[in-house]
Amino acid sequence: EKALTVRCERDLGPIVLIRLHKWRLFLEDAWFCKDVRVTAPDGTLYRFPCYQWLEGITTVEVREGSGKKLVDDELEILKEHRLRELKLRQEAYQWKTFAEGWPRCLNVGSVLELDSNVKFSFVRATNFNGVLIFQGFLLRRTSWKSLDEMRSIFSRTKVPEYVAKHWQEDDFFGYQFLNGNNPIVIQQCTALPAKFPVTPEMVAGFLGDGANLSKELQEGRIFIVDYEILEDIPAGTIHGRQQHVAAPLCLLHQGADGLLRPIAIQLNQTPGATNPIFLPNDAEWDWLLAKTWVRNADFYNHQLLTHLLRTHLFAEVFAIATLRQLPTCHPLFKLLIPHFHFTLHINTLARSVLINPGGVIDKGSGVTYEGMLLLVQRGLAKVTYSSLCLPDDITHRGMTRIPNYYYRDDGMKLWEAIESFVSGIVAFYYKEDAAVNGDTELQAWVMDIFTNGFLGRTSSGIPSSLQTMAELTKFLTMVMFTCSAQHAAVNNGQYDLGAFMPNAPSSMRHPPPAAKGKAFLQHFLDTLPEVDTTANILVALILLSSRLKDMRLLGQYPEEWFTEAEPRRLIRTFQGRLEGIQDDIEDRNYRAQLRYGYLNPLEIENSISI
User: Fold this and answer.
1) What is the pLDDT of residues 233-278, one digit of tens each?
2) Shortest CA distance to 598 belongs to which of 495, 482, 490, 479?
3) Separation of alpha carbons 418 and 555, rounded Å
4) What global pTM score does this model have?
5) What is the helix (H) or strand (E) element at residue 343, kind and residue range?
6) CA distance 286 to 439
7) Minimal CA–CA distance to 124: which of 444, 344, 407?
8) Residue 233 near residue 245, CB atoms below 8 Å
C-alpha cells in the first residue's frame, strides 16, 4: 500500500469531484485506488472514497464522500457525473435469464469475464481452488459395507462425530428442524391436512401421559414439515442406476421436556394402502428408513431452495440492482456494497461447477438437472416478502414459543441489531418520508429487484416501491440479513451435519417403501448413495463450509465508504451490539453438549462469498 502525494500551489475552492487519469506504458500495471484525500489551505479535508481497480488507459470520476444530497439544487456537473456512472455500470452489469422462472443473474459466461472489482482476491482464489481440486478422488462405485465404514470418510471433528453417534435418535432428528441446516421449513400444526390422515389412536402412545392429539394440536405442541414442493420432481440416474425422490410429510410433537420428536411420517402426498404412515413403534429399520427419506427430502429443499435460491440467488439480484441503479456517492450504495463482496464471483463459479449440467449437484444428487430447474422455479413462485423477514416468518410459522430454537433466538437479536443500524443510517440521510418517496435512484433500485429478482410477481408481497422511512428500513434490513446472517445459518453447518452421509443423503437408490416390514440393514445400505457419490458430495460440503483466510465478518467495514461522523458512530454502535450477541451465544454454548454457533457474529460473513 503506497500513498502518492500531489501538491497544487493555488486554492481550488470547495472540491466536489475529481478525475483520475491512468495510463499504461507497456505491460498492464493495474492500480487499486483506495481513496483520494485533499487538504485545503484552511485545513479542510476532502475525502473521495474510490476502492476500485484502475486498469489499462482509463479516466475515473470520484465524488467527495460526504453523502448524497437529496434535494434538487445539486450542481449540474454532479448530476451529469451520476448519469455517466450509472450508464457505464448498466452497460457493465447486465441481466440474463439462467433458467425459466428463476431469478435473473449476471450476464457473463464465466469468472474470466467478471470485472476485476467483483472478482475473488488472490488469497480467496488460492484457498478456494485448493479445496476444489480434491473432488472426485474416491471412485468406488459400490454400496457401503456398514454404517461404521461411513465414519471413515470424514475428519473426526466434534460435531460430525456427535452426528454419527446420535443420528438415529428421534430427539436429534427433531432438533435439526430447529437448529440444523434448514431451520425454516417447520411450522406449527393446528389442524391435520386431509392428505396426512394421522388418527389419534396412531400417535396416542407418543404424546405423554394424559395427552391426546386434539389437545396437543389445540395447545400448539404439534408441528409439521411438508415437502409437497418435491412432488413429481423427476429423478435421474447415477452410474446408469435409477434414483428416486419422495415428497414426505412429517408430524412432530413437543414433549413435556421441551424436546421435539417425530411421531408420524408419510413418504408421499397422496394417502393410500401403498403409502403407509410410519410410526416410532414400527420395526427399527422401517422407522429409520422413513426418517432417512425425510432427511433426503430436506437435503434437496435445503440445498436448492433455502440455500441456493433464498440466499445466493437473491443476494446476486440485490448486488446487480445496486451496481446498476445506485451511484457510488449514494448512501445506500455505501451501506450495501460491503454485503456483496465476492458474491458475483461465487455465484458465477457455482453456475460453472455446481449447478451446471454435469456439475456436482447434477452428478451427486437424485434429481435430474431439469428437476433442479423445476424445483427452484417452484420455490421462487412460493417466496413471500414475509418469509424473507425473520420476525414475520417466525410469527407466520407459529414458532414464537417453542423452546431450544436457537436459530430464532440468535437470529432475532441479529435482525434487531441490523435494523437499529439501518434505521440510524436512514434517519441521517433521509430525515422524512418524502425524501424516500422522492429518491428516484432508490425507487429504480427497488423496481429492479422486484422485476428481475421476483419476476414482477405482486402476490409475493415484495415491494416494487418504497414510500416511507420505515418501509425502507425493513427492506434494507432484509437485504443485509439475507446476505449475512441468513446465509451463515443455512451454510456454515453443512459439513458438520452432512459429513456423516445417512444424516443428509443426496440420493436414494431404492423407491420409497410401499409397505411396512420390508426394510433391513442391507436394504438400507443399498438405498443410500454409493461410496463415490458420497465422497463427491462431501468435498462440496467441505468447500461450502470452509472458513477462508480473507473472510470479512459481519459489521467489519475495512473500506471506509462513509466519511461523516454520524454513520461512523452508528457502525461502532452496531459492532458493539454484535459483540454483546457473541457473548450471549458463547455463554449459552459453554454449557451445551451440542453447541449452536452458526449465528455467532464470529462465524458470520458480511456477504455471501463461499
Assistant:
1) 999 999 999 999 999 999 999 999 999 999 999 999 999 999 999 9
2) 490
3) 9
4) 0.95
5) helix 343-353
6) 60
7) 344
8) yes
Query: What whole-number distance in Å separates Cα of residue 306 and Cα of residue 308?
Result: 6
pLDDT in tens, 189-236: 999 999 999 999 999 999 988 889 999 999 999 999 999 999 999 999
Better-predicted residue by pLDDT, 549 or 36: 36
Query: Distance of CA 24 to CAs 27, 28, 113, 188, 281, Å?
Result: 7, 6, 21, 63, 75
Instruction: Please name the amino acid found at residue 256.
Output: A
- Coil, strand or helix: which one is 235? strand
The gap from C-alpha 437 to its chain's centroid, in whole angstroms, comes to 30
Q: Is the pLDDT of residue 349 over 70?
A: yes
Please give the grid coordinates belonging to residue 371. 428437476
Q: Residue 572 contacts by C-beta under 8 Å, 6 or more apart in sequence?
A: none
Query: Is 17 buried (19+), middle (13-18) or exposed (0-12) by CB count in 10 A?
Result: middle
Non-local CB neighbours of 468 within 8 Å, separated by 6+ positions: 433, 436, 437
Q: Taking residues 127-134, report their average pLDDT.
A: 50
Q: Please name every residue paired with 188 in a beta bridge, in sequence order, or none if there are none.
A: 223
Residue 134 has pLDDT above 70, yes or no: no
β 222-226/249-254 pair status: antiparallel
CA distance 602 to 239: 41
Identify the residue whose cell numbers are 417453542: 402
What's the pLDDT at 70? Answer: 47
pLDDT value at 136 more than 60: no
Q: What's the mean pLDDT in 159-174?
A: 96
* Residue tagged 408430524 (cell numbers): 251
**CA proximity to 306, closest of 82, 151, 154, 504:** 504
Query: In terms of Cα–Cα distance, which of 342, 316, 303, 330 is closest to 479?
Result: 316
Q: Tell me, what's the pLDDT at 408?
A: 98
pLDDT digits (tens, 9 = 90+) for 512-526: 999 999 899 999 999
Under 8 Å between Cβ of 345 and 118: yes
Query: For residues 207 and 276, what is the distance between their CA atoms, to the nearest angstrom?
Result: 20
Amino acid 365 reads S
Question: For residue 111, how many other CB atoms are within 10 A of its CB?
Answer: 18
Confidence of residue 186 (pLDDT cuts 50, 70, 90): very high
| 3-state SS assignment for residue 265 | strand
* Gap between the Cα atoms of 498 and 605, Å rounded: 21
Contacts of 421 (CB under 8 A, 6+ apart): 570, 571, 573, 574, 577
Q: Is the pLDDT of residue 390 over 80?
A: yes
Phi/psi for 57 (5° steps) reads -105, 115
Rounded CA separation 16/382 (Å) = 46
